[in-house]
Amino acid sequence: MMDRRQFCRTTLAASVAAAIPFLPGCEKRVPVATEANTSIRGISLGGAELELEKAAIKELGESMTGPVLLSGHPDYDSARTIWNGMHDKRPALIARCLSAEDVSQAVTFARERDLLVAVRGGGHSWPGKSICDDGLMIDLSQMNTVTADPETQRAHSQGGALLNALDTASLEHGLVTTAGVVSHTGVGGFSLGGGFGRLNRKYGLAVDNLRSAEIVTADGKIRRVSAEEDSDLFWAIRGGGGNFGVVTDFEFQLHPFERNIFSGGIVWPIEQAKDVLEFYAEFAAGLSDEMYIGPTLMTMPDGTGVIAMDVVYNGDPAAGEKELEPLRRIGTPVQDGVTMQDYMVMQTNSDVAFGHGVRSYAKNGMVKEWSQGLVDALLDAYNGDPRIFITNHVAGGAVKRVGELDTAFPHRNAEIMLVIVSGWMDPAQDKDAIAATREVYSKLDPFTGGYYSNIDTDRAKVAGNYGPAYERLHAAKGQYDPGNLFRLNSNIKPG
Ligand SMILES: Cc1cc2nc3c(=O)[nH]c(=O)nc-3n(C[C@H](O)[C@H](O)[C@H](O)COP(=O)(O)OP(=O)(O)OC[C@H]3O[C@@H](n4cnc5c(N)ncnc54)[C@H](O)[C@@H]3O)c2cc1C
Fold first, then answer.
1. pTM for this model (two decimals)
2. Looking at ligand 1, which residue's alpha carbon is closest to its atom 4?
3. Is the beta carbon of 362 within 6 A of some atom in ligand 1?
């Protein structure tokens, strides 16, 4: 069961250091391919059964510096384990890549055989898109290094790095860029689909901070893309997800940052949620770019309901105190933990509550602005189910100032990215927990326009969700992945 007590303890006290269970390392090359006794079963992109010859797998193993893992190898099970415990799949082979050249070999192997491909960055895809049965898993988990350069104020992140590494490397030099709120999430999927975080009102989304990338496209070519080189492809990967290839290096803009920051949580009993939300709905419209405040409605294991505000002020603390003051006067909070503290306390305070192995389901929708109707719907949707969080990311500010078609991220007008997340441990609850999450979401859906493809990846109507950006995405897909090799994502069909 997702431990709500822990969540609250960590959120409210904001005092838990990151505890990130990295996958075990593979220090030396293990030529497992040579140990395969027979050909193994694979599956094609279209779902047909394939035979993968021992000689070909051996050749792939010999062409890579990282190992190829088959079932039975000591690292196979840990390598195929992703964050969401609901997705227990068994790839035919796992190419544990250590370089862009390794990725290129693996991509070529799959393309030549029409073999289904899953690409694993940080492994946090809610619907489990980074793993597949009987296909090839391109595993980037060992490509996890981030370096930050104080001179250029840029960071380079390998394709399988986690957000914790991005924050840590940048903060070391008094710099930062937008990263998400659970530090064991992958830079890869996060940055390709959008990338919301507590600093996005000031610095924009992750896609807005991406300056260049190294990407292996379906033809196996390793390309450096930027506004100057392969600019169509660079545009497409800033919102188009993993549709266009495997990104092996992300180059981000960093910003000078004081890590001791005015931040924390304020919590009220759920009985005060109406007053708090009604006030917040107006208050949110006037927030400065420095201020990030978002509400969450949730229930503790003992049945106590709360509304909690996540607060981060990225600027002069005195100005932050002043801006927050009217909200602090609403109702009677049971806890007000907003104080001066290290930014990483906030960035890691949900790591335990959203720990690896939890079974989880999420729905989401983009909302243009706060309204009384949305407040009423939230109050109606909250039902005391301790498995379900109703939360949101606060957009607006710099996110909104980027032109609608400047990147492929399609929801610049939305002020709110609503997220309904559930977590449980018992597989017997899967059906019920998913239905309960959908039921809560159905009450909020009328207020949404489109969805965040990083969360609701399995939704139909991908074209409609991308709106006017779709045509260009469709054409780029046709150019760079005409066979739709990269299809385990919010899939854009080749033009
Ligand atoms: C606990 C949790 C917290 C989250 N918090 C936030 C948040 O604060 N803000 C936010 O915006 N989102 C958040 N998300 C959503 C998150 O952005 C997506 O789940 C994202 O896809 C995770 O990326 P990943 O690399 O960890 O996932 P993976 O499962 O590895 O991959 C997800 C998708 O991206 C593709 N992909 C991953 N890496 C690469 C790469 N290097 N090259 C090409 N394709 C790649 C995969 O093939 C797959 O289709 C959160 C998700 C979880 C589970």
1. 0.93
2. 182
3. no
